Amino acid sequence: MAAGKVAADSTLPPVTRELVLLRASQINGCAVCVNMHSKDAAHAGETSTRLNLVAAWREATVFTEAERAALELAEQGTRIADAAGGVSDEVWANAAKHYDEDQLAALVSLIALINAVNRVNVITRQPAGDYQPGQHG
Fold first, then answer.
1. C-alpha to C-alpha distance for 34 and 23, rounded to whole angstroms
2. Residue ranges of the chain whose pLDDT lies below 70
3. CA–CA distance, 15 with 40 (Å, rounded to integer)
4. What CA–CA distance (Å, rounded) separates 119 from 123?
5. What is the pLDDT of residue 132?
6. Which residues are within 8 A (CB) of 109 and not within 5 positions of it... i.e. 6 or more apart?
7. What secondary structure does DSSP assign to 59-89, as a single string?
8. Looking at residue 82, what is its pLDDT?
9. Quick one: pLDDT at residue 74?
10. Among 10, 35, 11, which Cα is nearest to 117's?
11. Among 25, 29, 96, 124, which residue has the fewest nearby CB atoms (within 10 Å)?
12. What is the per-residue pLDDT across 9-27, written as a single tens digit (0 to 9) for each?
């Protein structure tokens, strides 16, 4: 979890971090992380409307262009096995329009880390539901 501190200490907006963590966790079917990141985001003031629409962010009108770029980067970075070539140049360029170099580094690190944590939790069938906001940090 110490690796996540780099992203947490970056200038990447906290709400963007939680949206990215939630979306990757949804894709990976990690109930522990979906539970944790939706609760942490709500506790930090995120609305239920936005949290409920993360899974369908493309059709939702409640996300900023920067958030949408981060969500798309998270999706392509999570689904690298689904498309040869990984993250497209277009998706990377769009993210780079909204985030500086340090924020992009934080996003990439965050996406890689949450995918690793999701896999550990899914492989070991960790139960979900009783997480309390802030419990892990």
1. 8
2. 1-2, 84, 136-137
3. 10
4. 6
5. 81
6. 3, 6, 7
7. T-SSS-HHHHHHHHHHHHHH-TTTSTTSS-H
8. 81
9. 96
10. 35
11. 124
12. 888 999 999 999 999 999 9
Residue-level pLDDT at 80:
87
What's the confidence (pLDDT) of residue 136?
66
How many residues belong to the chain?
Answer: 137
Residue 5, both tokens: 């501190």
Q: What is the pLDDT of residue 137?
A: 57
Q: In degrees, to the nearest 5, what angle opens at C-alpha 8 toward C-alphas 6 and 9?
A: 65
What is the pTM assigned to this prediction? 0.90
- The three-point CA angle 32-37-43 to 5° equals 130
Q: Which alpha helices (DSSP H) does 9-128 contain, by range?
A: 14-28, 31-43, 48-53, 65-78, 89-98, 101-123
Enter the tokens of residue 123.
């492989």
3-state SS, residue 94: helix
Q: For the range 120-124, what are the long-range contacts, defined as Cβ-Cβ under 8 Å and sequence gap of 24 or more?
A: 121/30, 121/31, 121/32, 121/33, 122/28, 122/29, 122/30
